[in-house]
Amino acid sequence: MQTNFIEQLSATAPAGLEQATAALCGEVRGLLKARTPKRYLALEPYARDTNLCHHILDLLTGKPALPDVSAPGCRPLLMLLALSEDTEVQNRLLHGLVEPWRKACRTPEMLYLCDVLYQTRIPRPLHNMCNEVCDYFFVERRKQVSHQPTPLTEAELQYAEKRLKPLYAAVFRLKVNRYSYRTNSVEELAGMLCMSVSTFREKFSKIYRQSANKWLREQRIGQIRRDLKYHYDRPLREIAEKNGFESANRFWEFCTGQMKQSPSELHKELYDELCAERRKFYLGE
């Protein structure tokens, strides 16, 4: 049988909080049929009462089992606590509920916290909560991208990412880094992320603060430099093929145009740089 937090809150009101608790319980009852958590923002005036917030926390964290967000009154009371600006209240909320829910893999509770953070627009007091919630879904998304089993559905992952901008940005970077080594084409990379080219360019520009073309070019240059430096014993033709060039001429044109040196010049310069680094390491300079 689920705990009715509204009834328990009213029945356990400490001396001095009877009136405030009764008023809160009455308002929460009126909000139980709300279709969106946005309605719960109306509880913000009660969040200013620190003693009332601690009374709510005592109730939610004082049970042997973690509270269930589907229990009557739990959702609006969590929103109220999130609206508090008191540091101690936020610490108790984080360590008493958010962290235990995450460790117990309580996905319904973590999804509701996405709603809380979305509706409150992640004010500074909730940054630590946001980190916990984002980490929970990011770890599972990383498993899914790596083809590892995850208990979360695609719909749940997408819901969290739509609610939390920091999570969306982190997942976008994860996918770009995961797939970019396969291509040097913005069009192909957009397809790998299941986006139109225009949407991909827009998202990329907002998250990376530069164009996708420029970033891919920089990544390609970095990879070429690493290959020329650490695979100095390989023929230039092989390094050109590894980096997606159709011919030695195309490789030469890219190096001279984008890196201002020919492949041979780069090869020698980077090999000399590697030798200098090794001498410094072995001689302890």
Structural features, described:
The protein folds into two domains: 5-157, no CATH class; 215-283, Arc Repressor Mutant, subunit A. The mean pLDDT is 94. Helix 7 runs parallel beside helix 9 and helix 9 (154-163) packs across helix 10. The chain is an all-alpha fold and 285 residues long. It is elongated, with a radius of gyration of 27 Å. The chain is built from 16 helices and no strands. The longest helix has 21 residues, at 263-283. The chain has helices spanning 5-11, 18-31, 44-47, 50-61, 74-82, 87-103, 107-120, 127-145, 154-163, 165-179, 186-192, 197-208, 212-230, 236-242, 248-258, 263-283. The chain starts with a helix and ends with a helix. Residues 185-269 form the HTH araC/xylS-type domain. This is Helix-turn-helix transcriptional regulator. Keywords: DNA-binding. Pfam families: HTH_18.
